[in-house]
Amino acid sequence: MKKKALITGVNGQDGSYLAELLLEKGYEVYGLMRRKSKVSYGNVEHLKNDIEFIYGDMTDLISLINAMKISQADEVYNLAAQSFVGTSWEQPLATAEIDALGVTNMLEAIRTVKPEAKFYQASTSEMYGLVQEMPQTEDTPFYPRSPYGVAKLYGHWITKNYRESYQIFGCSGILFNHESERRGKEFVTRKITDAVARIKLGVQDRLELGNMDAKRDWGHAKDYVKAMWLMLQQDEADDYVVATGETHKVREFVELAFKHVGIDIEWRGEGVEEEGIDKATGKVVVAVNPKFFRPAEVDVLLGSPKKAEKKLNWEREISFEELVKRMVKADLKRVEKEVAFNTYMEEAAATKE
């Protein structure tokens, strides 16, 4: 009998990589999708014939119960979230409804339909916020600094509560920043690599960022979804930090991204006056814009993956340098196609005139 898995947030970055992994392992994969006027498969467009999609919403318990009845999932991966930290200040209530109460809805659906199903909750390093120790482990006290981090902390604790109260096999993966070629452009890493590609190809002048001194522990999403799967293959449910054990400044990410397109960056100025200069041309290609500063900043995140490495036998394969290289390469291809299409359309319009 094939194992059955239900993935919420299936068309996001993590959902797409996880779906690929589970399909490779012979799973029958179900994906929860919100009903829209126009169907959008997002990052799973290439898998739309391999996944059985179920319409549902994390804020609607009845639809989640229905999803569990249809899928009869052995494993449920809850990846659905309002996952952009910046937006959580603009939409704190929506963030709470999806990222906090939505987790409770999913757990209730499991408890009602199939309590023996195994559950994975996507927790986040943003729960550490104002970090209390370095590096952060499973035992480090939490101190979230955004509505997103607070909502995720509720989801983390309610998973633990259902595990202890109802014996639900519930695991939380405290994942540190994980990026990829499929990351949305609203996230700083994709914003950087997309801008680098556009600047290289002459369709954008400069990249504007907020706090370039912020430090993050960046890995590749493809490596991290393996840890999710491994958690649900254990005999006992537990929580795990998934990280690289390395931290890099946003400034370092910028430098490396430009380096991959042959542009060396030289920095001048400090604070809001800081600028990144193309050494070869003297042109300003990076600038600080205060509008991108957060109301409460998380200065540094650095995770210890020792428990996951020891108990899950998990290891990452993609380095920080390779991650940046892959993202820049993918964005160069995207922008080249975009430029070629726009040029074709302009030439076609000129011919008609």
UniProtKB/TrEMBL annotation:
Q: What is its EC number?
A: 4.2.1.47
Q: A GO BP term, please?
A: 'de novo' GDP-L-fucose biosynthetic process
Query: Which reaction(s) does its UniProt entry say it catalyses?
Result: GDP-alpha-D-mannose = GDP-4-dehydro-alpha-D-rhamnose + H2O
Q: Which residues form the NAD(P)-binding domain?
A: 6-327
The protein's required cofactor(s) are namely:
NADP(+)
Pfam families in alphabetical order: GDP_Man_Dehyd
The record's section on InterPro entries has: GDP_Man_deHydtase (IPR006368), NAD(P)-bd_dom (IPR016040), NAD(P)-bd_dom_sf (IPR036291)
Which keywords describe this protein according to UniProt? Lyase, NADP
Spell out the SUPFAM superfamilies in the cross-references. Answer: NAD(P)-binding Rossmann-fold domains
Q: Which GO terms describe its molecular function?
A: GDP-mannose 4,6-dehydratase activity; NADP+ binding
Which protein family is it in? Belongs to the NAD(P)-dependent epimerase/dehydratase family. GDP-mannose 4,6-dehydratase subfamily.
Function, as annotated, reads: Catalyzes the conversion of GDP-D-mannose to GDP-4-dehydro-6-deoxy-D-mannose.
Q: Which PANTHER family match?
A: GDP-MANNOSE 4,6 DEHYDRATASE, GDP-MANNOSE 4,6-DEHYDRATASE
How is this protein named in the record? GDP-mannose 4,6-dehydratase
- Which species does the entry assign this protein to? Orenia marismortui
